[in-house]
Amino acid sequence: MIKILLNTVVRNLYKQKVYSIVNILGLATGVTCTLLILIWVNYELSFDNYHKDIERIYTVYENQKYADGDVFSVYSTPSPLAASFKEEYPEVEYASRLVSTWGQLVLSANGKTFVETGGKIVDPDFFKIFSIPVLYGDYISPLSNESTIVLSRRLSEKLFGDIDPIGLSIEINSNYQFIVGAVVENAPENSSIHYDFFLPFKFFKEYWEYDLSDWEANSFHTFIKLKDGANSEYLAENIKHHVRQRIPYSNVELDLQAFEKYHLYSISKNKAGPIWYVQVFLLVAVLILLIACFNYMNLATARSERRAREVAIRKVVGAQRRGLVGLFLTESIVFTTIALGLGIVLVELLLPVFSDLTNRTLTLNLGNLKFLIAVVLIVLSTGVLSGSYPALFLSSFLPILVIRGVFRQDSAMLRKVLVIIQFTMSIALFICTCVIYKQLNFLQDSDVGYNKDNIVYIEMLDDFYEEYSELKGELLKIPGVHWVTAANQMPVNFRNSTWDVNWPNKLEDSEDVLFQLSFVDFDFIETFEMDVIQGRGFSKQFGEDTLKFIINESAAEKMGMVYTIGEKISLWNYTGEVIGIVKDFNFNSLQVGVDPLIMMRNPSSFKYIGIRVGEDKDPIINRIRKVWNQKFSHIPFNYRLLEEDFDYFYQAESRMGKLFASFTAIAFIISSLGLFGLVSFITENKAKEVALRKVFGANVDNVFRLLYKEILRWIVLSIAIAWIISFFAMEWWLNGFAYRIEIGIGIFVLAAVLSLLIAFLTIYRQISCLVKIAPAHVLKYE
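Request: output the structure for the sequence above.
Response:
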């Protein structure tokens, strides 16, 4: 039976080559897009899944509550938190702190020297919480000894080659000696925690002179692993006021996030996190697959008159409706299977391009059982969905009516509805793509309050500030170097903050305000071309300016200051006067607003040298490199451009825009095939009507307008529905930005014009062929 069905399907495929090719291409395009998106989604969902007992691993985070009801959620927690959790809560089996090394470290071993930034400071429990394969050395507790360092495979091979380095010595910054205690496997790409080496907290305490018993300093991630069967919700409720029990005036509440959600889910109540992109593109995959299915239905039922006689003859010779339904469903599943084969070939060809778009290393792994099951389900569901209506419709023809030349017309409305849905989806995707690109261009071209162009910056080692003044003098001698300054952070990565700020007239019972804090040098304002609206910047003309503050407009507003020059404010144990106010500038993504900011001089905290250069950057950078190599011949010269880091803020939106544009083009192509099917049906059924109109004197233009008008009203309805859907969807998306565009009518008009143009080009040839057919040829059997 199955062999007969397959033979019949193959014969029909061969007889109707053009129809078969169009159908297979439509389904193959839909399947290709769906597979590409599923590969990416599977990659995103696979993050950190290689850790054993991941369902028992949690990260602790803070909800810091400030004035005006603001809640600032951060992963940064106090140093003593991990140890206190392990001591006080029986649910906690292991607890570890984690902090990245602050800046660059120089590692020397085996006669080689490298500058590394990928170091992590962790507790011994870290290796009991996370599954990190140990290749050489201590498998039980790789970091139990405070004089040991743990290397990744990459760094081990870089320093020592292929030999086993256990027991060999490594020197850090010429002052600290460590013995290699273990070599661990490199972190996989789908890991949230990337590392090159691990160091014990003894080094952190000594090198950065950090008080690890301070409950008020938040610099550390805290990870815990619960005992088997422990209730995480009960623990989360108990730890809420853990910090406040040590610091009664603290504004901090603790909470837990399952490590399974660490990569995709935001801890902030105001941000959806990357999971939003996963959900959006899953929806896009479903929409494109539906468009492909609807396209198949349209093309299948558009040929109903030709298939009707086949159905009638089969019924006359004894075929049952159930058998005919099976025949048409088999046909659609065969179409889908062929489309799947073509889709897999296209996926293999497109994966390198798609990997670049998503910034991921993606592969098609048909050996993955879960993925294979998903592919089989896609084939079956697509085949059944796309073939269900044609099978039920075509198998319902009555032989006597077909022989008389009478055909059912009740599928016409469904076909029109399917085309409306297809074009609605495509137009909505087009509008969303335009809005995303427009918003992205707005963000990248907006005035951020300083000049980010032509800024080169270099990360210094922690003791370089002692030689910074001499280096600055040498750099300023280079032609094309206009300004040189230093700071603990560049304006694209301000991360230091504090609520321990006091000012005149601050009420004792007032809620705390979170201030961003930055340590900057002389000429910082001039280098970044910021606007000083009151007072002055830091200048050597006034001495060292070490107990002076510059604040931004938002800080002045929070403090209730109108004219602030000379006002005294207190920051931690420092008390000094405000010497200037700068116009608000954005030191984070424009998705968020400008926070209150305080700047002060603290040379020992400087980590970066900022250099304003001329337009012709390359030769100037080469001269800077020459000066650097002369002064620090043992340290490789590494630099960054501030404008490139600024663009990094919007990489996710940029990738989403490119993907939307690609899938929108594909959706329009498939929708056009669906429209092609609808027009085929209309021209097939209107042939006699058109012939009669021509016999009674209608000219070609009138007939063309009549047929185009019928198609036009369905496209216009699609445009109207798409306008409404895309407007509300994009308004919701844009509300997530502190600075945003107004959508405007232009995008909607462009979408309408493009849709009508695509529709016109799709149907023009078919209608033109119909109106040119001689009436005698159509009516010769009437």
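The longest helix spans residues 651-695.
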